[in-house]
TrEMBL record, chain A:
Every Nucleotidyl transferase domain range: 5-140
Gene that encodes it: EIF2B3
Statement: the UniProt record of this protein carries the keyword Phosphoprotein: yes
Keyword Transmembrane helix: no
Residue ranges of domain EIF2B subunit epsilon/gamma LbH in the record: 344-436
Subunit structure as annotated in this protein's UniProt entry: Component of the translation initiation factor 2B (eIF2B) complex which is a heterodecamer of two sets of five different subunits: alpha, beta, gamma, delta and epsilon. Subunits alpha, beta and delta comprise a regulatory subcomplex and subunits epsilon and gamma comprise a catalytic subcomplex. Within the complex, the hexameric regulatory complex resides at the center, with the two heterodimeric catalytic subcomplexes bound on opposite sides.
Family: Belongs to the eIF-2B gamma/epsilon subunits family.
Keywords recorded for this protein, A-Z: Acetylation, Cytoplasm, Initiation factor, Phosphoprotein, Protein biosynthesis
Species name: Oncorhynchus kisutch (Coho salmon)
InterPro entries: eIF2B_gamma, LbH_EIF2B3/5, NTP_transferase_dom, Nucleotide-diphossugar_trans
Stated role: Acts as a component of the translation initiation factor 2B (eIF2B) complex, which catalyzes the exchange of GDP for GTP on the eukaryotic initiation factor 2 (eIF2) complex gamma subunit. Its guanine nucleotide exchange factor activity is repressed when bound to eIF2 complex phosphorylated on the alpha subunit, thereby limiting the amount of methionyl-initiator methionine tRNA available to the ribosome and consequently global translation is repressed.
Name of the protein in question: Translation initiation factor eIF2B subunit gamma
GO terms under biological process: central nervous system development; cytoplasmic translational initiation
Subcellular compartments: Cytoplasm, Cytosol
Any one cellular-component term (Gene Ontology): cytosol
From TrEMBL, chain B:
GO molecular function, one term: guanyl-nucleotide exchange factor activity
Biased composition annotated in UniProt, kind: Basic and acidic residues: 14-27, 42-56, 103-125
A GO term from the CC aspect: eukaryotic translation initiation factor 2B complex
Function, in words: Acts as a component of the translation initiation factor 2B (eIF2B) complex, which catalyzes the exchange of GDP for GTP on eukaryotic initiation factor 2 (eIF2) gamma subunit. Its guanine nucleotide exchange factor activity is repressed when bound to eIF2 complex phosphorylated on the alpha subunit, thereby limiting the amount of methionyl-initiator methionine tRNA available to the ribosome and consequently global translation is repressed.
Domain of life: Eukaryota
Biased composition (Low complexity): 89-102
Identification of the protein by name: Translation initiation factor eIF2B subunit delta
Keywords assigned by UniProt, alphabetized: Cytoplasm, Initiation factor, Protein biosynthesis
Amino acid sequence: MELQAVLMAAGGGSRMMDLTYNTPKPLLPVGNKPLIWYPLNLLERVGFEEVIVITTKEVQKMISTDPKVKLDVKMKLDLVCIQEDADMGTADALRHIQQKVKTDVLVVSCDLITDAALHEVVDLFRAHNATLSMLMSKAHEFTETVPGQKGKKKTGEQRDFVGVDGTGKRLLFMANEADLDEGVVIRKSIMRKHPRMHIKTGLVDAHLYCLKKSVVDFLADNKSISSIRGELVPYLVRKQFSKSTNSPKVIDETHQNLKKNDSNVNLEIQISSRDEELLHLTQERSCWNDHRGDMSDAYHGGRLRCYVHIMDEGICYRVNTLAAYIEANRLAPKLFDEPAVHPSAVVSERCLIGADSIIGASCQISDKTSIKRSTIGVSTTVREKVKVTNSIIMHGVTIEEGCNIQGSVICSNAVIGRGADIKYCLVGSAQRIEPDALPFETLLRPPCLRSTLTPTSTHRSTHTQCLFKQLNRNNTCLC
Amino acid sequence: MYHRYVVVALSRRKPNEGKELTKEEKQRLRKQKKHQKKQKERKNEKGPSETEKDKTPVSLLPPPQPVATQKAPSALPAPASAPIPVPASAPFHSSPAPSPADKPAKSKAELKAERRARQETDRAAKQPGSSSSGIKTKVPLSELNPVVKRLPEHVQVDDPAVVKRLAKKLERQQIPLRSDYGYKVSLFSHLHQYSRKAPLTQLLSIPSTVIHPSIVRLGLQYSQGIVAGSNARSVALLHAFKQVIRDYTTPPNEELSRDLVNKLKPYISFLNQCRPLSASMGNAIKYIKKEISNIPSQCKEEEAKTKLLTCIDRYIEEKIVLAAKAISKYAIEKISDGDVILVYGYSSLVNNILCEAFEKSRKFRVIVVDSRPRLEGREALRRLVQRGISCTYVLISALSYILPEVSKVFLGAHALLANGYVMSRVGTSQIALVARTYNVPVLVCCETYKFCERVQTDSFVSNELDDPDDLMVTRKGKTQLENWQDVSSLGLLNLVYDVTPPDFVDLVITDLGMIPCTSVPVVLRVKNLDQ
């Protein structure tokens, strides 16, 4: 077997608590399919037959019991549960399943929605015998207005600096703004080997990594690394150019030193493979070099190599913020060919459903409704004369007559009373909006003590006694 | 005509065998009549000659005749089948369809067979030991059946029947078919032309189950040019086969010697799709297949596997590493102090020779000639300068300017063909030609495992077409040939190999010694006898 797929689905979705406090992030509906379906579909299309899914007990229960969560995948899913409150990072999760890992791994995150050609990433991994190969994409600005946010505000997300060489494939430098004190510091050894480096900032990390098995074993020994993205990847990128990796070590010695319990247990010991002499002979006789202009051999004699494939076109989203969630809902339907209106939905004759809307299964859409650029979830009831524009309506929602919903997100099992006019709001799970309410740019969630709106109230305010006040500053809650 | 000889032969028979002979004669008559009936069915045009055969007398039937008549019908299908493979193997002569060519050919062959039968009876009549006639009649039969070699499929791309056959074979082996790219120059339309941007792996599933992962990795490295050069490719191939053998387990009810060879076939097709196999790789594969089939069936799996692994190691050690040492030893004798040596492109063997000569403190300098688009000479230059050898670097267009300075030319080879031609990187024949004009000795260095039984006199018949997009150059941000596909009258040709005639090569240095170019078939014959 060449590669094993590992899907990380234990994340909490800490940047979109409004949506995930009730539904775990892997099961959030995007285009009426659970979020976890997208990476699973990607793996299935590419040809994987088995996936190890690391998730929480809650998610596992919901997958097996809830009929609305149908995963529709033919692959064998090996669900590994971890404790929710254990606060495990992605690297900790990999360490947890070290016994199951028999070959090189492909780590995917559950919130990745992409149509990338995975063979590009894996080919880099194979051809150059790389230790790490990852996927990145050019970031697109989110154009949709996000409910609950006053205008366009930037949370000041920390930028990532990614340095690649002239070909655009070899990863030379990776750092997050948070880790840098004054400026970007690049070591002279890197500049001597790669005098031309392109540093890019506008890239989205797709969190898709091909890692060699020796890295997983290395993680098992080094328990201090807890996150793949935050710690392991920058460590590997730095280690490419460290002196110890490149010094000509005698291989026999390193085999004998395998038992040493050094905390910097050398990654390069574990990289050496059998028949090293033949590989060395091949490289010696081959006339290929990855760079030119200096006197060194291919790869500068280094044995640890990190590669990146940067996508120019195509869809690549990580659904970890509300803005990304809304954007994904708009674009996700392009990824699969199912009909926009589910055959089991009961749609009356005199309603207007736009071409880019999706109607889920078992819906009931009554007369004179207009649905544009929206997603209607499973088992939702929409009564007469309702206008839904630019919105996401999840499962089991009831929308009474005469409502006007614009640019909003209505979570599962909510009830919107008659005549409500909702603009750019986020209505939490199982909430009730009273008839004739007019919320504007608000977020409604429990467990605020008074979570119903009175008629004619249109205020937006921050309620200091709300239990959710620690979330983000611009969280508006109506009590 | 026929029975005259019959009468002569019978006159020597003993008279008291007459009665027994009559019974046997009757049986033979019956057989003969049956054969004649069959012959009549086959050749209806030949009226007069058959009536002659009907006139054979009943009583006079010598032993050779049934053999002769039996031989005649069996001789007929043989020459009839001989013309059929000839049109099939020469698709370039597209005009004669096989069926009309059969009938006149059959009649000619028939006449030939009859004539031969008569000659045989003649010879049998002259000699008393008539039992040997049976053996003698078989000798012309084998001459009638020549060993028919079919053209390999990768040089018949413009023949749709062959392409279909290849597609079916690949489908059976579950390997995707790589499609050709771009406009092919008409002279080379019978060869494959692939694009590097469309690798074969995009059609495979990612955790490759059909093909062993090390073979997938090897195929990728071949198609991207990471492993390039005849020796490197062979070593990498053998390394990958070692992994395959290590991971192999014999399925129940199968023998390792047969099953492993069958397992290797789809891998070889896959590698062929990624990049056409080189002659050295072909020889290495033949060796491995022979070794695998020679494993005795009572050998246990583990034992067999270790035996194969040691065989592979020994092959590499003997044919590549030690051969390089032997060739360097011979070649260093030819390098004298004060020499100016010209090398072309990158040849691992020639580089090895020069580095060893430098270590043995010969004083010489090197001129490295390079050519686009591969520009492999840069790598050769780097390795020589790293050792401390003083080098000059020119492009092939400056060849005639620097040749007056040169005292010797050392060339590497991709393969040495059976008629003495040298197959090497494109441009080598030019170097040899210009060197001959300037009377500079040309020495080709080649290991014996690269000797090939193929015969080729030009570079068109069998070659390799590389990605035409490699010929595009970007200078100052502008690529002039960017839209070459849109220009209907433009075709880009990126040839990889060419053949140098033996008249231009003065000496071939192999691990068996220094031989002239025309002695290659001798070496091949000796090698075949050894095996």
